[in-house]
Amino acid sequence: MIPMELDWDGAGFTMKMIEEPKQLDFEDRMALLDNALAKESPESLKIKLESYSPSTEIPEICFVKADWWDGRLIQRVIVCAANRFKLKDGGELVIPGTRHYSKDMALVLDQMRDKVVSEQVYGDDQGFLDQWGNYLTRKEALIIATHAGQINTRRQKGGPADTLFSEDLY
After folding, report:
1. Cα angle vertex 125, ends 122, 128, to 5°?
2. Residue 155: which of 141, 145, 140, 167 has the closest Cα?
3. pLDDT tens digits for 119-157?
4. Mean pLDDT computed over 67-89
5. Strand pairing of 63-65 and 78-86?
6. Does residue 56 carry a pLDDT above 80?
7. Given a cut of 90, is residue 7 above it in pLDDT?
8. Burial class of residue 37 in the structure, from the number of CB atoms within 10 Å of its CB (0-12 exposed, 13-18 middle, 19+ buried)
9. DSSP-assigned states of every residue in 103-130
10. Which strand (E) or helix (H) includes residue 25?
11. 20 to 30 A from 57, CA-CA: which of 7, 8, 87, 132?
12. Neighbour-count burial of 25, counting CB atoms closer than 10 A to its CB (0-12 exposed, 13-18 middle, 19+ buried)
């Protein structure tokens, strides 16, 4: 199929073929880039790059040092809601779920009911897990999710502005 568009020629409409942009091969693209960069000084290039994307320092909490992979920093993402329960023996239990107190979380809690101090948790004991299973409070998780581009992908974030809710993610 040939892409076409209507074009007004002064007397009426005619069909005009839409020309596809020419795809350059890698060497041609590199030659264009070299040519453009040759016209720039390091200072002018820095100014242009900063004007396109002002630098934003990403907080340290947004990264995990990958000791298993040459120590590089890997950006964290939020993967699910979680509640943290105190156990009668002094320990703690983190139960992940699709949402706080969702059906899947309730099924696990039903099995642990006799071991937890309370079936209801509040404040910092309602949080989220990252991709490595690390528990984070709602405030910590908001920082990570914001810098990972996970907020406002389906709808605008609700309030309060400094606290993450699962509805802000999915």
Report:
1. 120
2. 167
3. 999 999 999 999 999 999 999 999 999 999 999 877 888
4. 93
5. unpaired
6. no
7. no
8. exposed
9. HHHHHHHHHHTTTBS-S---GGGEEEEE
10. none
11. 132
12. exposed
Alpha helices in 39-160 (DSSP H): 42-52, 103-112, 138-147
Using an 8 Å Cβ cutoff, are 80 and 133 in contact? no
Q: Which amino acid is at 50?
A: E
pLDDT confidence bin for 55, thresholds 50/70/90: low
Contacts of 8 (CB under 8 A, 6+ apart): none
| Other beta carbons within 10 Å of 147 | 19
pTM above 0.90, yes or no: no
C-alpha distances (whole Å) from 36 to each of 25, 67, 98 are 17, 40, 49
Q: Are 105 and 97 in contact (CB under 8 A)?
A: yes
Long-range contacts of 134-140 (CB under 8 A, 24+ apart): 134/64, 134/76, 135/82, 135/84, 135/94, 136/78, 138/163, 138/164, 138/165, 139/163, 139/164, 140/61
- HSE at residue 137, side-chain half, CA atoms within 13 A, is 9
Whether residue 18 contacts residue 4, with contact meaning beta carbons closer than 8 Å, is answered with yes
What gap in Å lies between CA 17 and CA 22, rounded to an integer?
Answer: 15
Say if CB 94 and CB 101 are below 8 A apart: no
Eight-class DSSP state of 160: -
